[in-house]
Specification:
The protein is built from six helices and 14 strands. By secondary structure, the chain is an alpha/beta fold. The structure holds 1-O-phosphono-alpha-D-ribofuranose and uracil. InterPro entries: Nucleoside_phosphorylase_d, Nucleoside_phosphorylase_sf.
């Protein structure tokens, strides 16, 4: 039997960073960037059975409308997504503490509920967007074979990853606006923001050719990693984005919490039917 010797467990046999055991997560996972948003989601739950926090990874498992769900914060960026998706997959598809592959691998539903900035003038602040696919310029492809890479802008390599088609369709039918997401490795220079030093990607603020050629609509920092790793691991992922800024028009949301709350409530209703 194949022994997955590189899996690291804590003394209590929980997985290394998430500090969770198999059986403590549901097959439906909601990821959020901000640990504070975990409570914002679970305030709508009728029951809670697991709560665990280690570093930026805060996990709560409970039920919404009778449907078991797990909410977990990833913190910011695809470096954290790498940890969260691999450890959720270990909890689901590896027998612990033996570290042997589970004889019956299972597929998780993974739904990101995140925030994002639009890079097209016709996606106003307040839009609830579902990513049909994402281009990653976050560097996660250095550790995995995500297939063909493309040079998006001079010296900027990107991988492409597609969301679960059926889940994207369900959210689109329920009013989420479809879009194509750019996942960046940082918030400032990598998203075209020049503060005291110039960004190499300032063209993102002017609907650059590669933005319109690829149909890119919004920027954030997790979706491409979630989509690409979910595909490789055999999980089904969908990414929801509350648009809080428009980088072309310069508009910012005056009520960001209301937009996020609307995404959470609508998202939970839809997920509870799956
Ligand atoms: C940057 O401020 C963070 O906000 C967005 C980005 O993806 C990045 O994580 O998402 P969250 O609000 O879900 O963290
Ligand atoms: N999150 C991002 O990463 N970028 C934005 O512009 C807004 C939210």
């Amino acid at each position: 039997m194949l022994h997955l010797s590189e899996i690291i467990l804590n003394d209590d046999h929980s997985v290394y960073h998430l500090h969770l055991h198999p059986g403590e997560i549901s097959d439906l996972i909601i990821t959020v960037g901000d640990p504070g948003r975990v409570e914002q989601v679970v305030q709508h739950f009728e029951s809670i059975r697991v709560k665990r926090q280690y570093r930026e990874f805060y996990t709560i498992t409970g039920t919404f409308a009778g449907r078991p769900m797990t909410v977990i914060s990833t913190g910011i960026g695809t470096d954290n997504v790498d940890i969260v998706l691999n450890e959720l997959d270990i909890l689901t598809n590896v027998l612990l503490p033996e570290r042997v592959p589970h004889p019956f691998p299972r597929s998780l539903i993974i739904c990101r509920m995140g925030t994002s900035g639009a890079i097209r003038s016709n996606y106003p602040v307040g839009t609830l967007l579902v990513s049909t696919s994402a281009w990653g310029i976050d560097g996660l492809q250095t550790g995995y074979d995500f297939g063909n890479l493309r040079e998006l802008a001079p010296g900027v390599m990107a991988y492409h990853a597609i969301g679960d088609e059926r889940l994207v369709e369900i959210f689109t039918n329920e009013g989420f606006i479809p879009g194509i997401t750019l996942t960046a490795s940082g918030f400032y220079g990598p998203q075209g923001r020049s503060i005291r030093i110039p960004s190499k990607l300032s063209a993102l603020r002017s609907e650059a050719d590669f933005v319109s050629d690829l149909g890119l609509t919004n920027i954030e920092m997790e979706t491409a990693g979630i989509y690409a790793l979910s595909r490789l691991l055999g999980h089904r992922a969908v990414s929801l984005n509350a648009i809080l800024a428009n980088r072309i028009t310069g508009e910012f949301s005056s009520k960001p919490e209301e937009v996020v709350d609307k995404m959470i409530k609508k998202g939970l209703q839809i997920l509870s039917t799956l």
